[in-house]
Amino acid sequence: MTTASYTVRKWVKPEDLNQHGTLFGGSLLRWIDEEAAICAIFQLGNDRLVTKFISEINFVSSAVQGDLIEMNFSVVKFGRTSITLSCHVRNVLTRDEVLTISTIVFVGLGSDGLPVAHGLTDATQGSERVPFRESRRLG
Ligand SMILES: CC(C)(COP(=O)(O)OP(=O)(O)OC[C@H]1O[C@@H](n2cnc3c(N)ncnc32)[C@H](O)[C@@H]1OP(=O)(O)O)[C@@H](O)C(=O)NCCC(=O)NCCS
């Protein structure tokens, strides 16, 4: 299978911190879920998808305000209606690993809200599968 990876970086801001002044785990998980979903949309060409499964998460280090967090997603496999990604997160400034998630599964849904076969077996590094929408430019 063609490999594909997707990297996104976040700057840790005051609203991302917990009561101890370090990165709130919930903020990081929200970023991961959202960015993984975007990655899955690029791969499946379907923006009606849901997170089905996230495997064990072991937070091995943290971050503080001003740190740069890098999330890297890789396509693990295509199923019939699903796609499986993995995620590696590191703190760019300290070079420390923050966490690794081996399995994040998204399921593509049809207009009836039920899983729909995507017919894909290979990953793409491009954006050609992203669904097309009419322009919203005025005039
Ligand atoms: C996603 C959902 C429609 C799937 O329904 P379902 O009855 O499990 O459907 P299926 O049994 O046909 O499984 C669909 C796919 O999910 C996979 N799947 C189901 N349970 C799984 C699990 N525990 N772990 C990993 N994959 C799983 C199946 O293998 C299948 O993939 P494939 O077609 O590529 O082989 C349903 O579970 C649902 O709506 N869940 C809630 C999703 C949600 O709200 N997420 C959070 C907000 S985005």
From TrEMBL:
<dbReference type="GO" id="GO:0005829">
    <property type="term" value="C:cytosol"/>
</dbReference>
<dbReference type="InterPro" id="IPR029069">
    <property type="entry name" value="HotDog_dom_sf"/>
</dbReference>
<dbReference type="InterPro" id="IPR006683">
    <property type="entry name" value="Thioestr_dom"/>
</dbReference>
<keyword id="KW-0378">Hydrolase</keyword>
<dbReference type="Pfam" id="PF03061">
    <property type="entry name" value="4HBT"/>
</dbReference>
<protein>
    <submittedName>
        <fullName>Acyl-CoA hydrolase</fullName>
    </submittedName>
</protein>
<dbReference type="GO" id="GO:0006637">
    <property type="term" value="P:acyl-CoA metabolic process"/>
</dbReference>
<dbReference type="GO" id="GO:0052816">
    <property type="term" value="F:long-chain fatty acyl-CoA hydrolase activity"/>
</dbReference>
<comment type="similarity">
    <text>Belongs to the acyl coenzyme A hydrolase family.</text>
</comment>
<dbReference type="GO" id="GO:0009062">
    <property type="term" value="P:fatty acid catabolic process"/>
</dbReference>
<dbReference type="InterPro" id="IPR033120">
    <property type="entry name" value="HOTDOG_ACOT"/>
</dbReference>
<dbReference type="InterPro" id="IPR040170">
    <property type="entry name" value="Cytosol_ACT"/>
</dbReference>
<feature type="domain" description="HotDog ACOT-type">
    <location>
        <begin position="2"/>
        <end position="112"/>
    </location>
</feature>
